[in-house]
Automatic annotation (TrEMBL):
SUPFAM superfamilies listed in its UniProt record: FAD-linked oxidases, C-terminal domain
Protein's UniProt keywords contain Cytoplasm: no
All residue ranges annotated as the FAD-binding oxidoreductase/transferase type 4 C-terminal domain in the record: 10-161, 173-203
Keyword annotations of the record: FAD, Flavoprotein
Coiled coil location: none
Matches recorded under InterPro entries: FAD-bd_oxidored_4_C, FAD-linked_Oxase-like_C, Vanillyl_alc_oxidase_C-sub2
Name under which the protein is recorded: FAD-binding oxidoreductase/transferase type 4 C-terminal domain-containing protein
A Pfam family hit: FAD-oxidase_C
GO terms for MF: catalytic activity; flavin adenine dinucleotide binding
Source organism (scientific name): marine sediment metagenome
Amino acid sequence: EVGIPEPVRYPEEPPYTAVIPMSAKTENQMNAKLEILNDIIEKLNNQGTNIHLIDYNEFAKLFNLKALNIFNLPSQILSLHEYSGLTWFGAYAPSHKFEELIEKTDELYRKHGVPPFNYLKIMKGGHYGIFRPIFRFKKFKDQEKIVKLLEEIADVCIDLGCIPYKTPSWITAKLREKINPGWIALFEKVKHCMDPNNIFNPGRWNT
């Protein structure tokens, strides 16, 4: 809110809020999933972690009803009156690399003094996932810092097997360094066949 300072973290407050959407075809199936989730959280806490499991509707009542907007990210976000908006890096990601992606990007968030915020989603029954670090920023104060953070996150994600989507030319340049040269040659032949006048996203893939 305008004019209200960011809240001070209380001792032992977890550094992350992780939202876990769950669905099921029957009530029994949902109860079974919840039982598995509770067992996992209990096991992790017994190993020394500090995880508080709470229904998201109750979380929204405790902190701010605006928190309900997270269900519609990134298509619906209430106004960030003190910020210039949000930007994010989006990639298709191997879901078995989520833990490593979170750990390595968290180091980068802390390095640049940016609050960590990642949106992760399992796709196609776990066949692959979406990994989307999101940043709020003030344009004339934070833009240079956010640009550096984005570039470093892109390097980490590409090295861990992510495929960025809706890529600007500076990211496709990084991809071309990693992609099999034979695939690039085939891609350029197909693009030239379909787009001989180079009017489809010219320069986007540095072709």
